[in-house]
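Side project, low priority. Logging it here so it doesn't get lost.
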Amino acid sequence: MCVFKPITTVMDNKKITCALAQRGIGIENAGHVKLCNLSTHIFQDERGTPYRVDQTNLKDIWKNNVTRREINESLDKGQRHENCQLCWDAEDSGVKSIRQVMNEKYPEVFDTLPEQPSIVNMKPGNVCNFGCRFCSAEDSNQLYEIDYELRTNKETTYDQYLQRYKSYKDSFKKDSEFWGVMNDWSQHIEHYALYGGEPFVNKPLFDMLDSNYHNGHSKNQDLYVSTNTSVWSEKYIEILKSFKSVSIGMSIDGTGAHFEYIRHPGKWEKIKDNINKFVHLRDTRDNISLKVAATCNPFNVYYLDELCDYFSSVGVDVDIHLIQVPQYYDARILPRQVRDAIIAKHSHREDLQNVVNFLSSEMPDREKHLKDFVYMTKGTDNMRNEKFTDVFPEYSKLLQDSGINI
C-alpha cells in the first residue's frame, strides 16, 4: 500500500490540470524521483518503497510508480493533493504558481500520450565547487566535513558518514544507466531545468546537453540553468547557444566580502568578471535571458538593497527567494527589534516588498532556530577561520544590541 494519502480539498469538482503532473519528472540529488522540484512526495513502488535511479531503470520508475498515478487521480477529481502544496499556497496568495506557468507554456502536453516525460527538472548529484553557508551536504559535497562536525552526533566514523552519500555518486556517474535513458528520451523533451550541485562542474550533465546539440534536438528545447557563476566555459556556452531558449539564473546573494563569506570559497572579482561575460552573452543572443536568483537568509537580509542596486547598475533583474528550510536559515528567526530595523531600511524599496512582508510575519519556535543559526555560524566560522562580525560590522552591531553575539 502507498504510505501517503491525498488531501481532499475540492475545487468545484473540476479537474485540476497540471502539465508537470501529466508529463513532468523531477530528479533529486540522491537519485530519487518526483513529479517536479516543488513536489514533496518521492515516487514509490506498490509496497511504498522509494525508487532510486541507481537501483531501478528510470523508464521503469516512470511507468510503474504508484505515486504519480495517485496524484493525477486526485487532480482529475478536482482534489488538491498535498504533494502540490507549494503551488496551492502560491495560488491562494495571488502569485502565479509553477503549475500555472507550465500550463500556459506547454498546453500541448495534455494532447500527448504519457509514454515519457517532456518536462525535466534535474538535480543530478551534489558535486559542487562551493560550500555555501545556507546549503546542506545534500546539495554540495564541499560541506561534508562541516555537516559531520556540526550536525551529527559522531556515533559513526567520517568514512561511515560518507556512505550515506554513495547514491549521490552512483546515480549520476558518467557510465550510469540514467544518462542512457535521458538520451533515449531527448527527442521528445521540451524543457529542462538544471540545478546542482553546480551544473557547470558536472561533465556528464553537459555531455547530455552536447548530445542534444549534435543530434539536433536542442533547437526545439527550452533550458533553464542555475549556476553559482564561478565557471565560464566557452565549450559549454557554445552548447547553450544551440537551444531554442536559455534562461540562466545566477545564484548570488551578496557582493564583495559578503559574497565570499556566504558562498565560500568564491572570489568576488572572478564572479564579477563572469557576470559581465553572461551579460554580454545575453545582449548578443536573442535566445538567452539572464536573471539573479538570490536567497533571503539571516546572513544577507540586512544588505539586500545593496545587492539589488549592484545588479540594477549592470542591467540584470533580481528574483529573491525566501529561505524557509532549514528553519535556522529563515530570516524570521531574527528578534522583532532586528527585523523592524531591517524593515525600516528596506520599506521604501518596491523590489524588496516581498522581503518586508515576510519579515513582518512570525514563525514557530523562532528562538530555538535562532540558537541553531548562531551555533552553525560560529562553528563554520571556526572551521573556516572566518568571522561574521568582520564581514558584517553594521549588521553585527544591530544583532549585538539585541543580545545576539556571533
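Brief comment: The beta strands are 9-10, 24-27, 33-34, 79-80, 119-122, 191-194, 222-227, 245-250, 288-296, 317-322.
Revisit when time allows.
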